[in-house]
Amino acid sequence: MTIRVRFAPSPTGLLHVGNARTALITWLFARRNGGHFLLRIDDTDTERSKPEYEEAIESSLVWMGMDWDEKTRQRARLERYDEVIGQLKQDGWLYACYETPEELSLKRKTQLSRGLPPIYDRSALELGDKQRARYEAEGRAPHWRFRLNHAPIEWQDMVRGPVKFQGDTMSDPVVIREDGRPLYHLCSVIDDADYGMTHVVRGEDHVSNTATHIQMFRAIGATPPEFAHLPLISDIEGGKLSKRLGSMSVRELRKEEGLEPMALVSLLARLGSSDPIEPFSAIEPLIEAFDFGKFSKGAPKFDFEELLRLNQKILHQTDYDTVRVRLANSGLPEVTEGFWYGVRPNLTRLADIKEWWEVATGPVEAPVDDTDYLSAAASLLPAEPWNEDTWKEWTDSIKASTGRKGKELFMPLRLAITGMSHGPELGTLLPLLGHEKVAGRLKANRAA
User: Fold this and answer.
1) Domain 243-248+260-316 is classified in which CATH homologous superfamily?
2) Strand, coil or helix: what is 325?
3) pLDDT tens digit string along 213-252?
4) On the CB side of 62, how many CA atoms lie within 13 Å of its CA?
5) Which residues pair with 418 in a beta bridge?
6) pTM of the entire structure?
7) Does an H or E element contain 38, and which?
């Protein structure tokens, strides 16, 4: 059997961390098993679906290293949905309901006040033709529900293990709106059946949906796929994600945070599994090691600081040839191989190199009102060649000569050499600048 899976985003917004994790785990599962990965755009919400969101979702997937073997979109399959819906109505699986949202809300409140579960009472099944005609004469358009079989619903989940629902404790789900548009539930089931999906991977918030979907598969004469329901991501304290992380899109991580794609992939691929989270520069090892048996039912914790640490470690392993074109495209075509390897250990994001480059190439203007001290420091500059120990050797000799220490020793030097009170480590920067440039800055930045 060929593994066939899908990722089915709705183009009503950007691709966020939680959905990106689902997409990645689904993709890793497919690639690990030589399977087929379908990208399905769930765009039946015509008011909110936007082409720019679809493009952004695809761009984010590609940025993370994912591809797809096939693509489809639900809006192109409306005739097929109508065909299946007609058959389900004929077979008695769907029935028309005329309650308004207010009437349904009142029913739920009444049931709860009586200590009853707030499930639909199927009163629409008792309507006669005259009552239906009366409702329609009033201008009411029906919504349609799927009639669940009141029997146990069971499956073996690839993450959660055995799952069981009782059909008679669940509401018949609404599957068609009053305006005649089919909802996610039925469209998804029809697509999964038509495209031969063997496995469906999604968040645990869909577990109860899966129970109803299993009966829908059987109603249309299809075998349900296997399911894997992933726990939803929590924050570092185990609660719901903060507003910032909860709304964090892949595009934000890419463009605003300036992170490496493999940092995000390294984190999301292992989050919630027994495998250690490590920095990977390539996705192949993650494919080879993927196994649903490694994932637990506990909510994994998303730590943005851990993501930054992974990003840092990946950059520290990145060779010059890998970033040369990216540096040029970001306006730094003159960064040399030596400069890259010199500052690489001090980068958290690739964009951090701009600060180093600006300091290294100058000009620097930060007059220091300490002329005698800078003159003394300039006279103590060691002879070249310089290395990572030069800064310490130089400041040790200044300390011995002037008696200065701490901020009084270091801050005038930093201001004169870099023009900033903070920034790149001078132990790394000094060899990149060289004796002539450092001496020149010490002289030029003495206050008149």
Assistant:
1) Glutamyl-trna Synthetase; Domain 2 (1.10.1160.10)
2) helix
3) 999 999 999 999 999 999 998 877 777 665 445 458 999 9
4) 7
5) none
6) 0.90
7) strand 36-41
